[in-house]
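Notebook B, p. 112. Complex prediction, attempt 2.
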Amino acid sequence: MAEPLISLKGVTKRYGEGTAAFQALKGVDLDIMAGDFVAVMGPSGSGKSTTMNILGCLDVPTTGSFLFKGVHVEGLDRDQRSLLRRRYLGFVFQGFNLLARTTALENVELPLIYRGEARKKRHDMAMAALDKVGLVDWSHHTPSELSGGQQQRVAIARAIVAHPDVLLADEPTGNLDSQRSIEIMELLTGLNQTSGITVLMVTHEADMAKFARTIIHFKDGLVERTETGHRPGLELA
Amino acid sequence: MLWTTMTLALREIRRHVLRSVLTVLGIVIGVAAVVTMVTLGHATSRSVQSQISGLGSNLLTILPGQGIGRGGGGVQPPPFKIEDVDAIRGQIGGATAVAPEVQATATAIRNAANWSVSINGTTDDYLAGQQWSLVSGRTFTPAEEQAGKSVCIVGNTIKTNLYPDDDPVGTTLRIGNVSCEVIGLLKLRGQSGLGGDQDNTVIMPYKTVQRRFTGNRNVQFIMVAVDPRYESAPIQNSIGRLLRERRNITASKADDFSILDTKQISDALGSATTQLTAVVTAVAAISLLVGGIGIMNIMLVSVTERTREIGIRLAIGAVAGEVLLQFLVEAVALAALGGLIGLVLAFIACFGLAIPLKLPFMWEPQINLIAFGISALIGVVFGYFPARRAASLNPIDALRHE
């Protein structure tokens, strides 16, 4: 069996000090293979968001190890983790988090600016990403001129524009109606299958989790159980 | 990277035009005020200097008594005589011209027109020392000076008022009770630094003035033109010693005459204007400081307002230094922009004020450059704190910020 892309071993996370301390994770072991589509589920306070923050290199475990592509992320500093995110990760948020008063195209170009791409290449890559989410015709619209579903598509285009290895989606359909939600999930599924991008998604909607190949259930800071192969035909590449 | 950061910063400024303008208003006003004050101050200095130099450069004026305007009370010091003038001319080296000045006022009458003039009784040396040339006619002959002939050289104001259409040279002009032949017309000199119209002067041989106007042999002032190759101070000292001797002043007593140096007057007035300019500039500079604080306030508000944006940038992979640089560049660009607008305003103000204030219009690259540099520096100083705050935000908290 191949080496996992992501591997958490005995990860704990503790917030605060003394009596106010809160143990968010109590020893999580987790392997995620490249190309997988993973849904992380669990009630609030179960540790799923904390896990996602650690997997997204936004936070570090208190103890335990986090291997990403064979690199010990827990030993990296802030800027090193920023560079890791820049190169390998893409983020989609529940609240879309697009820059206001900024066109869809400029929003999508943002990660490329930090990667130091030239203007022309930036434009071409951003347009290609907008094409993948079906919004080429909306490239010069600002978020306030777009519907929620369109905004989330722009956010997905921004997340994939730099061809990351992993797409982290934190409740991507949380602010959308069911029709829009299904469209977004189909888009993510398509990206996962055609581009081979690994998708990690937090959701509390079982309907959305069904789109994933692997579902990880969290409870009380621990992995409760893992289900695999929900959707036949969605095989690991 | 700096280039993209600047693009981002300028884009951000363009997106919030009103907020940006309000932010930099303080800098705009501060820079405009400082540059205007300094420029007008220098223009004033220059105008004062040029008026003083209109009095003649390196000229000493010797007058009886101590100081200017300290008249009345005590014994009047004895006036000078023509022998004093001759003694200075004969015994003091380094003087290019020494001339007596016997002054009087009278009314000049030509045809039906009256004009009040000041009369200066002197010699040709006076015109030489003052470097005052003639437009037409000639200066006195030694014979005319010796004999005290009724001849005169008139200033431009007299020509304007009494000879509007013709040449005064060769005519006879009645001055007081004296009928006098006009032999020369002086070149226009303009206002003197100490007020008064220098061109409203009739110059006559001193003997003529003594005999026909003042009625005594006194000489009010002695003018000494110092050779520019010599230091003025030692010459003043030797003149002082000579006059003390001639006037029998004992060692324990103070001088009963004074020697004024136009250069000293010019320096004194110049340093007074410089000081005044410095004080006004300091006041104006305070508004620059206030402007900087204004920028810091808005940038701090902006960091709070844009917490989410910063979170997004960090999540996407911006390192702390890039966020810091973005906010810093924004602050500097804003401040520099404000500085530029201020310079333009200052230019307009100096241009507009030059005429009503009767000052020469000036544009000094130096002060403009300094003011612009300072405004950019203010951007760095007052932008750093908010920028550092932005860069140190935790991406998770920043993304969660409402």
